[in-house]
Design brief:
Length: about 280
């Protein structure tokens, strides 16, 4: 049986990987460590104690509602299917800890902390904690969902870190799609005050493992307990993703040939100039 991974082990990993004082787009699986003493609190504390800012997705899909009557948008990854009941949908509250369970233990733990900063996007909010948190999260908007990543790509100290997860769990790849020129899908969602907002969202990520050989040259890996950490400098990672999408648009398509979201995103995303708001 392997020894448990400790706070000191995580700190040493951060230091050896050159991540001290960095801004990190983090995706993680605590299970990948095997036995991690202290769980999510250990991970977050180790990064904060080494001067890092953590940026994590804190999505809330249950706040989605149907668009206004007569609203249509071609190539929008939904074929006009809007089975959402406005009356029974919970409105999004950025001050609350509400989050999809699939986001994982670390984002949920970050939301429990008083010092965290969270965006107001009702479907795809990001949260951050650390010295640069407020500046990065302030960049997110309803129709600028990846605003935090747009802030990060201007920084030489920004990284993507995957702790025990693969590229299908890597939200920055959606930003790479946008950087390649693709338009993001539009959805509608309910805020806590009952107001319904039009928002941008990403596409299907089930095919993102196709990028594994593409990003290998800019990847650094380390082992922390049973967990493999994959580390990428943020801007080179996004630039590589965007360039490959432009060369081979179908690389993002998942293994389901009938996936509507993949089909429409490969075509470039919604046709915003042809939208119908009647």
């Amino acid at each position: 049986m392997n020894m448990p991974t400790t706070y000191a082990d995580v700190v040493r990993a951060i230091e050896s990987a050159g991540l001290v004082d960095r801004v990190i787009a983090l995706h993680s699986s605590l299970k990948s460590f095997g036995h991690l003493e202290g769980g999510a609190e250990t991970v977050v504390r180790a990064f904060l104690d080494t001067g890092c800012t953590l940026v994590v997705p804190t999505f809330t899909y249950g706040c989605q509602v149907s668009p206004p009557p007569g609203w249509t948008l071609a190539q929008n990854g939904d074929e006009g299917r809007h089975p959402f009941d406005m009356e029974h949908v919970t409105g999004f509250d950025s001050a609350s800890p509400m989050i999809e369970r699939s986001m994982g233990a670390v984002p949920a733990y970050i939301l429990s902390l008083r010092a965290r900063v969270r965006g107001d996007h009702p479907l795809n909010s990001f949260a951050a904690i650390g010295p640069q948190a407020a500046e990065i999260i302030a960049a997110q908007g309803m129709l600028n969902v990846y605003g935090p990543y747009k802030k990060m790509i201007t920084r030489s100290d920004a990284y993507v870190l995957l702790i025990g997860v693969g590229l299908t769990r890597t939200t920055p790849i959606h930003f790479g799609e946008e950087q390649s020129g693709r338009r993001l899908f539009r959805r509608w969602a309910k805020q806590a005050d009952g107001k319904v907002m039009e928002v941008e969202v990403g596409s299907c990520s089930d095919g993102f493992n196709h990028f594994d050989p593409v990003v290998n040259g800019i990847e650094k890996t380390i082992q922390v307990g049973d967990s493999q950490w994959r580390i990428f400098p943020f801007k080179p990672f996004i630039d590589t993703i965007a360039a490959v999408i432009n060369q081979t648009p179908t690389i993002t398509h998942c293994d389901d040939p009938d996936c509507i979201r993949c089909r429409d995103m490969v075509l470039g995303g919604p046709l915003l100039s042809a939208r119908n708001n009647s």
